[in-house]
Amino acid sequence: MVVLGGGVGKKIAVGVCVMEKKVFSASMGQILEGLQAFGEFEIVIFGDKVVLEDPVERLYGCKSCLGIQAVNELEQQHLLHD
């Protein structure tokens, strides 16, 4: 994991790979707020350009990544919940 800063108060960088329209959704807001509430994490958001065009090396500085994929088909959602 990448640690930002040194000594006391250091934070772990967590990269969030997500389409920009999803960053501001209520559910994503709850996830990110929950992570930030611990006070141990620095959230780094990689938006549309990085997700769609840039090489994976662009995720510099983050050894932990959070990727969210929406499933909009009801049948597939049931499979995920089993």
Write the layout of secondary structure elements.
Layout: E1 3-4, E2 11-17, H1 20-23, H2 26-37, E3 41-46, H3 48-52, E4 64-67, H4 74-81
Q: Descriptors for this entry?
A:
four-stranded mixed beta sheet, 82 residues, alpha/beta, 4 helices
Range of helix content: 25-40%
Radius of gyration: 15 Å
Shape: globular
Q: Report the major sheet.
A: 4 strands, mixed
Report the order of strands and helices: EEHHEHEH
Mean pLDDT: 75
Residues in β-strands, percent: 15-25%
As residue ranges, the low-confidence spans are none
Sheet/helix structural class: alpha/beta
Give me the count of strands. Answer: 4
Amino-to-carboxy terminus distance: 31 Å
DSSP helix count? 4
Q: How is this structure best described in words?
A:
This protein has 82 residues and is of the alpha/beta class. The longest helix is centred in the middle third of the chain and has 12 residues, at 26-37. Strands 1, 2, 3 and 4 form a four-stranded mixed β-sheet that branches. The model has no long low-confidence stretch (mean pLDDT 75). A hairpin with a 6-residue loop joins strand 1 and strand 2. It is built from four helices and four strands; from the N terminus they run E-E-H-H-E-H-E-H. The protein is globular.
